Amino acid sequence: MTVLLVMAKAPVPGAVKTRLCPPASHVQAARIAAAALLDTLDAVRATSGVTPVLALHGRLADAEEAAELTAATAGWQILPQRGTDLGDRLANAHADVADNYPGRPVLQVGMDTPQLTAAQLDTAVHRLTVTDAVLGPAIDGGWWALGLRNPRHAAVLRAVPMSDALTGHHTVVALRDAGLRVNYLPLLQDVDEWADALAVAASTSGDASAWSADVTADCRPGRAAAVSPGRSGGQEAAHPQTRPARRGTGSRFARQVAAVQRSLTPGIPQ
Known about the structure:
The protein is an alpha/beta fold. It is built from 8 helices and 11 strands.
């Protein structure tokens, strides 16, 4: 049985999603992070035949939505993240899972792709049965998922530069240099900046036509500003500024982003 490992930071104001600030406040950014994590946990729970594990930096007790996050991870093994940088923490998390679940493959995801579905996780778990490694590339050049038949091979991540436009490329090179066959998963957009949050929220709003009517401009007449949702291949992609989504639709993440967007737009009820 595959271990489905979620790497996450406790959504504490000032400690997570600080690149959303501005326009979001630190509290709003933490609430968006909590919503993204809760949606991710939902997808993991809906994935059949896996053992869920959370590798956590910080304490859920200090986080926004602490009670709901605690309830959502009831029965999960929670491992503290260890290490001095991201590559080190990732490698250590895989090694800790290998120690606790000997001989089990590991599929690791983060909390930055709240649009992730159980069907996508099912596909990734299946692909890992026929190859040594799977990697889910992200639009910004990083990756949103890493699966390893032998999680101790994650040690190669210690030497991979993280959080840049070539992280995905360097990860694949490191895995192949270790003799592993790598299978790719679908490309997803992760949430780093405000434009990313708007784009991903639109995709998870549960009412694409309602959101798409709201994404052409903000609520001020005659104004529409282009913003960048992230880099792909070194190019900046234009994305229209987004009006708030309609209430009551879609994922927690979409609703939380919409709530922040309403707070930023004069004349829209809070």
